[in-house]
């Protein structure tokens, strides 16, 4: 039996007084494609931000490859993870952001090359080749020496995906990657994700409002509502068989 | 009133002060940049003591006048503590450098803080260490934002160098005062020329500032 690569065990997260996540239990298996859907403010983004170590859970544990992400052992006790511990585990995880977050002072090629060279200490020539290959794959082979400010939103987001992929993560997180795009640019980004979902064996977690797309490519769909996973299953199970009234209402509103 | 032969007479005398003005400016500018980066980064330190100690320096030097600081360093400190800061050239450089370093440290701090939070998050997602995040992502962008302010302060520093004439440095203004006190009727021509000297020195700095603004417009993600 395949072991999960990520496990959430009763994870809670509060921002000040507000409890955003109220006990998340979730297994992610290697290569699995998961779509997280749900109303705004339901805590979808927070789930993946905790895995990317951008937010610390208030309570509960997240395991990556069997290792506790936010806690480490010190003198026989479990204490809060330090930067070194986080860095060790984080190397398996990559993320693409809603607002791209490309480095504006670097060319597109440099955006892709910087982390493998400085973080993973890989050979520069090899990284260059891999980065060019990856940028060609997302359709930007002719923009290598352009700066992010010279690109459209859709192109920026494709660069951001290439940048994350060059690091060869085992898990890729997509945080509403089409929400900041003009409608006519959404398609080109979704096409890249569809290509990745089909041909890459890494696990992918997509937080998205593109409902039809999510249902189409995901192995598993999570419906998040009021801080809990209210419904989960295959796309078919979730859409057709769930009698969760809030989910049905949500789907009616978001599906075309 | 302004005679051409007076002009020819005054000009070379003022020019003798050029070397001091320029050398004090260059040394004070370098010193102030170093202070600005050191203090600016210290104010972002996680260590409370470092942060507080630095803000004491910054607020004292921002909150009191440069000329009084100059006199303190030149007259009061040697008398009170028996410490000589070196020649009056060095005293001038240190006073101006400390004073402007305090102002510019706020520019350093503010620029680093105003690099968009998403940049740090992207750097974390690429598994950069805190030092790599600063060196590769945050600092290069912050530096672009600092450039226009830094050139602006450098222009101000040029004008502040004229204060060193008050501690006996023979800069442009010092020679101007000497000529004027020998022959009061030359006061207008002397001070017109002094202004022109400073303006000509400021011109390349003004030009540099324009360039800096162009550079800083590109390549920054700010909030």
TrEMBL record, chain A:
The keyword Transport applies. GO terms for cellular component: plasma membrane. SUPFAM superfamilies: P-loop containing nucleoside triphosphate hydrolases. The keyword Cell membrane applies. It is found in: Cell membrane. It is a peripheral membrane protein. Signal peptide: none annotated. Belongs to the ABC transporter superfamily. This is Ectoine/hydroxyectoine ABC transporter ATP-binding protein EhuA.
UniProtKB/TrEMBL annotation, chain B:
It is found in: Cell membrane. The keyword Signal does not apply. The keyword Transmembrane helix applies. It is a multi-pass membrane protein. InterPro entries: AA_ABC_transptr_permease_3TM (IPR010065), ArtM/GltK/GlnP/TcyL/YhdX-like (IPR043429), MetI-like (IPR000515), MetI-like_sf (IPR035906). GO terms for biological process: amino acid transport. GO terms for cellular component: ATP-binding cassette (ABC) transporter complex. Keywords: Amino-acid transport, Cell membrane, Membrane, Transmembrane, Transmembrane helix, Transport. GO terms for molecular function: transmembrane transporter activity. Residues 18-207 form the ABC transmembrane type-1 domain. CDD domains: TM_PBP2 (cd06261). It comes from the Bacteria. The chain crosses the membrane at residues 20-44, 56-77, 89-108, 153-176, 188-208. Coiled coil: none annotated. Its main location: membrane. Belongs to the binding-protein-dependent transport system permease family. This is Ectoine/hydroxyectoine ABC transporter permease subunit EhuC. It comes from Compostibacillus humi.
